[in-house]
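Design a sequence for this backbone.
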């Protein structure tokens, strides 16, 4: 029997045994399961600033974990080897994974506290295509007094957000563009869903946002001014304090346009500062 997945805007209607567009959610006997539950493709102890989070426990380290799968189709994906490998060619590539339980990750994180670790960050691929593992692991980390971080594209339903938000201390959300056309035609997503996700998350945890500047796609001053004004309107008009990371694009995956000029990043960051108190530049 067909079952519809409720995680993102694609609402994949899946026959028995089939996997959704994200490559990580599968219909098994009429129930949608995360096939990537506990299957990690990346594991590292990173500076918190690398997430990027600039105003959440600066100077600390965090255990960063990633799996596979993504709800978007960004042609410039920086982690396409794990996020999008299942879409390359006619056959899925074989990914090396290591299986961890939430408790095993928690034990590892506790052992790393002497190296400055404060908790766990779900990152590298899109964590919310396997939101059940995020929820279960984050709940356990909180019981041990450790911090939890989510790095996401924000393209998930309010139902899923409500499942995880009580267990997340900080998020960095990629706000990849600020037009419906950019999301629909260029990255295969839904701007309104992402905006709704950010609006709710802003009231529930520490929030920082990232915008990757891609030449001739999302690099106008008019767009970033509209984006900054909207961010400032969050939290009942108190959103000026939400940090925004304006980041430089480099050619990756299937998008080969030249890297964003550094001066463009600085110019757009300065425009965003007209409305926001904390604007950072990245990859420069």
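Sequence:
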């Amino acid at each position: 029997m067909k079952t519809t997945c409720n995680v993102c805007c694609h609402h994949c209607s899946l026959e028995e045994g089939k996997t959704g567009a994200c490559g990580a959610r599968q219909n098994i006997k009429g129930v949608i399961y995360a096939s990537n539950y506990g299957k990690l493709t990346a594991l590292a102890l990173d500076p918190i600033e690398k997430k990027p989070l600039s105003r959440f426990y600066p100077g600390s380290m965090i255990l960063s974990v990633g799996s596979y799968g993504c709800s978007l189709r960004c042609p410039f994906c920086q982690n396409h080897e794990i996020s999008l490998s299942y879409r390359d060619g006619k056959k899925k590539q074989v990914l090396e994974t290591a299986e961890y339980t939430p408790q095993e990750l928690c034990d590892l994180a506790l052992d790393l506290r002497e190296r400055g670790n404060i908790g766990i960050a779900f990152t590298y691929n899109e964590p919310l295509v396997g939101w059940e593992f995020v929820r279960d692991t984050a709940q356990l980390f909180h019981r041990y007094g450790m911090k939890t971080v989510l790095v996401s594209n924000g393209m998930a339903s309010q139902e899923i957000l409500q499942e995880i938000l009580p267990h997340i201390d900080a998020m960095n959300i990629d706000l990849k563009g600020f037009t419906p056309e950019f999301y629909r035609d260029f990255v295969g997503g839904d701007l309104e869903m992402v905006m709704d996700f950010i609006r709710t998350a802003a009231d529930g945890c520490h929030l920082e946002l990232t915008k990757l500047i891609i030449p001739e796609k999302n690099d106008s001053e008019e767009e970033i001014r509209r984006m900054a004004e909207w961010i400032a309107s969050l939290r009942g008009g108190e959103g000026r304090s939400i940090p925004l990371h304006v980041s430089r694009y480099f050619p990756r995956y299937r998008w080969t346009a030249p890297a964003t000029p550094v001066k463009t990043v600085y110019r757009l960051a300065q425009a965003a500062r007209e409305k926001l108190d904390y604007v950072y530049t990245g990859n420069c």
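The helical segments are 80-83, 102-111, 131-143, 158-164, 180-187, 191-202, 221-237, 262-272.
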